[in-house]
Design brief:
Layout: E1 8-11, H1 15-26, E2 31-34, H2 38-48, E3 54-56, H3 60-65, E4 72-75, H4 81-90, E5 99-102, H5 108-120, E6 124-131, H6 133-139, E7 142-146, H7 149-162, E8 165-166, E9 169-170, H8 180-208, H9 213-224, H10 231-241, H11 264-275, H12 280-292, H13 295-304, H14 317-350, H15 356-362, H16 372-383, H17 393-416, H18 421-434, H19 440-451
Parallel strand pairs: 1-2, 1-4, 2-3, 4-5, 5-6
Antiparallel strand pairs: 6-7, 8-9
The chain binds 2'-monophosphoadenosine-5'-diphosphate.
């Protein structure tokens, strides 16, 4: 290809980057390709070179020279050091007005820092969260871009073209300034952790009821055709149906029960702690993974502690299966409410103008948490000025109708010794949030007692300190 002929360039030819580049080529873009190790670029051309117009480059200078000006470059390398190294090597090669998109899983504070740094060089930067795994990158992910809106206008059409579509709408929309896109992607992942934890608790309860893996898979398939219709429920049925070729057992039962994590769930909780916003359900999911991956604790506690054996005795097992489904739905709604509240609070803190309805709308397809419920959540935010999802008309009504069942599931699980940290912490959040009065009054009294931290009264203005009778 002639110099300056590629419309967009992708740096990083690992799975996500190469699939995103192929997706662009499938949409008719001429795509420049670069990877630190050229062999990877060559492999992409060897395997997929006929799928569209690619302009591979061994040297970054040639890659940059092959792009139309102003240049559009999407970085898909290892988040963190890889992204910084790539940006540093690009800066001297780029010219004013060129635009760099970081499509990796960057921490939003890094995105804020990088945007400021590139702006100093007259370069434009977009931090775009991309969800959908490798298939999504290839066939249409959900994309959450953040940065200056004027920069988005320049790269947005390509991102919208390659994103997933639902009802003819792209699952990509401008989110807000600087780190807003990566923040929203981070919260997406936090919600994903919670979704998976709730599904895990439902699985454990169904198993405790004595259902076979075939029956559990059928149950999840059934749930997937109702209110819980979602990608994660759909693939849960498939995972439960898988048998292990080596032992003939259900594959899930021979998988080591220690969950891994790459950090986005932890970031979500850390950010929530920094902002003072409760995301109990997401935290419960992150800590449940931490317990699973703490072998010393588990071995010591298993040897030391007694309790019920975790089998469930219920009068009407079929009804209890439905009850588990309802508890899962309620807990899921709570996690979404917490995640969206976190986005709202971060937007206020960082001055982002985030349209929560639009965020829910682009999560309806392409991404890992895609779910029918997100259409309803989006409609509710669009129609109402909501502080919390929990006050949305159709949501509060359904939670009200199901909360009794949800309590029964949590209570039964607790009595039987089945751990349900996600279901129960979500329920505690529900009850805390709706409580007319919280035990925080006593906390304030204690703080004033030992530290003279003062308190406010319900019947007067100002701060008060008491000379407590126990004071010496
Ligand atoms: P995966 O897990 O799919 O391999 P990843 O680790 O997130 O993906 O990203 C790997 C990509 O980041 C590779 O393209 C890698 O380049 P190499 O093929 O040369 O290893 C790229 N990458 C990692 N660190 C980098 C760095 N410091 N500078 C440039 N590219 C880097």
């Amino acid at each position: 290809a002639s110099p300056g002929s590629a419309q967009v360039g992708v740096i990083g030819m690992a799975v996500m980057g190469s699939n995103l580049a192929r997706n662009m080529a499938h949409h008719g873009y001429r795509v420049a390709l670069f990877n630190r190790t050229f062999a990877r670029t060559q492999a992409v051309i060897a395997d997929h070179g006929t799928e569209g117009e690619f302009v591979p480059a061994e040297h970054l200078e040639d890659f940059v020279a092959s792009l139309e000006r102003p240049r559009r470059i999407v970085i898909m390398v290892q988040a963190g050091a890889g992204t910084d190294a790539t940006i540093d090597s690009l800066i001297p090669l780029l010219e004013e007005g060129d635009i760099v998109v970081d499509g990796g899983n960057a921490f939003y504070e890094d995105t804020r820092r990088r945007e400021a740094k590139l702006a100093e060089h007259g370069l434009r930067f977009i931090g775009a969260g991309i969800s959908g795994g490798e298939v999504g990158a290839l066939e249409g992910p959900s994309i959450m871009p953040g940065g200056p809106e004027s920069s988005y206008e320049f790269i947005g059409p390509i991102l919208e073209d390659i994103s997933a579509k639902i009802d003819g709408e792209p699952c990509c929309t401008y989110i807000g300034a600087d780190g807003a896109g990566h923040f929203v992607k981070m919260v997406h992942n936090g919600i994903e952790y919670a979704d998976m934890q709730f599904i895990g608790e439902a699985y454990e309860l169904l198993k405790a009821l004595g259902l076979s893996h075939e029956e559990m898979a059928d149950t999840f398939d059934g749930w997937n055709s109702g209110d819980l219709d979602s990608y994660l429920i759909e693939i849960t049925a498939q995972v439960l149906r898988q048998t292990d070729a080596r032992t003939g057992k259900a594959l899930v039962e021979v998988i080591h029960d220690a969950a891994g994590m790459k950090g986005t769930g932890t970031w979500t909780v850390q950010s929530a702690l920094n902002l003072g916003t409760p995301v109990d359900s997401i935290a419960a999911a992150v800590f449940a993974r931490a317990v699973s991956s703490h072998p010393q604790l588990r071995a010591a506690a298993q040897a030391a502690l007694t309790g019920p054996d975790g089998s469930l005795q219920v009068d009407d097992p079929a009804a209890f299966v439905d009850a588990i489904r309802d508890a899962l739905w309620c807990a899921k709604v709570i996690a979404y409410a917490q995640g969206l509240d976190l986005i709202r609070m971060a937007a206020a803190e960082y001055g982002w103008q985030i349209d929560v309805a639009a965020v829910a709308r682009i999560w309806r397809a392409g991404c890992i948490i895609r779910a029918k419920l997100l259409g309803r959540i989006s409609d509710e935010y669009a129609a109402n000025n909501l502080v919390t999802l929990l006050e949305a008309p159709s949501i509060k009504e359904e939670l009200g109708a199901k909360q009794d069942t949800w309590r029964r599931v949590v209570a039964t699980a607790v009595v039987s010794g089945v751990p349900v940290p996600g279901f129960s912490s979500s329920l505690a959040y529900y009850d805390q949030a709706r409580a007319p009065r919280l035990n925080a009054a006593l906390t304030q009294g204690l703080r004033d007692y030992f530290g003279a931290h003062t308190y406010r009264r319900i019947d007067d203005e100002g701060s008060f300190h008491t000379l407590w009778s126990g004071d010496r």
